[in-house]
Specification:
About 80% of the residues lie in helices and about 0% in strands. Helix 3 runs antiparallel to helix 12 and helix 6 packs across helix 11. The chain starts with 9 loop residues before the first helix and ends in a 6-residue tail after the last helix.
Length: about 450
């Protein structure tokens, strides 16, 4: 049953597509700025040893493993005049913005010496993101039914991810402009925190008038959630693919500032990171029509494999990076990664609502929050393990926190991690992706089960 189920005209559908997609700006700013800076902030500003920072990041994410599926259940069971999902877009934006500002003000307070309070601040950022993102990612399956239209809708998300990534990575440069050190990061945290809240809240208003499904009366326990995910074979395959690929993507984001500072040799890495991200963003956005066309010709799985391969080739070029590297080679690497990233994001995002629609047609039940919660939890697990493993690898190569000049062994370790770790994770992701067999023809042939 739906509270609204009219066939919307093209202009109204476009408004919903953009209105939903713009929320990604806030989420992407949070995710990318945090992924890029959290490890660097812990080691180079707060002064934690690399191994200690790795443990802190891991400990803070344990709560997320509970919070994500819990949020999926909560949003599925919510009943308000604004629907099941939309109220959490506002709440999540508020918590996310405040928590982000708090975390980057730690160095200005006595809390910077307390591991417990650092972990608590990190967990609060993750909680805000969960409150927003789990309901947010459940919405496309409610708003859109058509297989191809879902890809078009996700094109807007990928478009805004590109802008959000650029703004998120620019947070390092903003901190440098504002004076660097504890004060610079504190001011940056407050400015970015306001932006996160603003853009997340836009999605609440932008999706007004979109179709909403009434809550299911059948309750789903935590154990049942995991069973449901495994029983939905396309979803299980996509989950495995996304999990391992996120390891590669979070590693790529977390290591970027270390590579620019210590391998490329830039004292203020924020400026070069802006150049890299700007080129990557532009190419990523321009690549969307190309990837849309490739997906129509070769289906989504084959397109996903192609994008994965291109991204791996680009990562391997870090092996030849050095302080003598031309800016044009540096930017060319960003352009290739941006092109590949467009395909990775578009395919991964558009396949999720397909698998949720597959569950509805197989069972007749609307359980979008269950699947978006599981999908989100792998994101959180990857975001905790990937930077932690990267920091442990840096420690093994002899990286020293708060040391402006690293040994040759440490610098080579940063280079090897940048080149090989993402490729390793992406190679593993091809195994579950091989078993993803859901196509447009199969989905359309299924008749929804009547409950």
């Amino acid at each position: 049953m739906t509270t609204q189920a009219p066939v919307l005209p093209d202009a109204s559908r476009l408004k919903i597509h953009i209105g939903w997609g713009v929320g990604t700006l806030g989420a992407s700013i949070l995710l990318n700025s945090f992924a890029a800076l959290q490890a660097f902030y812990l080691t180079s500003v707060l002064g934690l040893a690399a191994t200690t920072a790795a443990a802190v990041l891991f400990a803070a994410k344990i709560w997320d493993w509970i919070a994500n599926p819990l949020m999926g259940v909560i949003s599925d069971r919510t009943e308000t005049r604004w629907g099941r999902r939309r109220p959490y877009l506002l709440l999540g934006g508020l918590v996310s913005g405040l928590a982000f500002a708090l975390y980057f003000n730690l160095a200005n307070t006595g809390m910077s010496s307390s591991f417990f309070l650092i972990i608590l601040a990190l967990a609060l950022v993750g909680t805000g993101y969960t409150i927003f993102n789990v309901p947010y990612m459940a919405m496309p399956s409610e708003l859109v039914d058509d297989y191809k239209e879902r890809t078009q809708m996700m094109s807007w998300r990928v478009f805004f991810i590109g802008i959000g990534t650029f703004l998120g990575i620019s947070a390092q440069r903003l901190a440098e402009i504002l004076g660097g050190g504890a004060q610079g990061y504190a001011k940056m945290g407050m400015i970015i925190g306001v932006g996160i809240f603003f853009f997340m809240s836009l999605a609440f208003f932008g999706t007004a008038g979109g179709r909403q499904h009434a809550r299911e009366r059948q309750n789903v326990s935590f154990s049942q959630q995991f069973k449901l995910g495994l029983q939905n074979k396309p979803f299980a395959a996509l989950l495995g693919t996304k999990f391992t690929q996120l390891f590669g993507l979070f590693t790529t984001t977390a290591m970027s500032i270390f590579v620019v500072k210590f391998v490329i040799g830039k004292e203020n890495p924020g400026q070069w990171m802006i150049y890299l991200t700007a080129v990557s963003m532009v190419v990523q956005m321009l690549s969307i029509p190309v990837w849309n066309r490739i997906a129509v010709l070769f289906e989504k799985r084959a397109t996903y494999i192609l994008a994965t391969t291109i991204f791996c080739v680009a990562s391997l070029t870090w092996l030849i990076a050095s302080p003598e590297e031309s800016i044009w080679i540096f930017l060319a690497r960003g352009a290739i990664k941006g092109f590949a990233g467009g395909g990775l994001l578009l395919m991964g995002q558009s396949m999720l609502p397909d698998t949720i629609e597959y569950d509805f047609r197989r069972t007749g039940l609307r359980r979008e929050g269950v699947f978006s919660g599981l999908y989100s939890i792998v994101e959180k697990v990857a975001s905790s393990f990937a930077p932690s493993l990267l920091l442990l690898a840096y420690a093994w190569f002899g990286f020293q926190s708060k040391t402006p000049v690293q040994t040759e062994e440490a610098i080579n370790g940063i280079r090897y991690c940048a080149a090989f770790l993402p490729c390793f994770y992406f190679a593993i992701s091809l195994v579950p992706l091989y078993f993803y067999r859901l196509t447009e023809r199969e989905l359309k042939a299924m008749q929804p089960k009547v409950t």
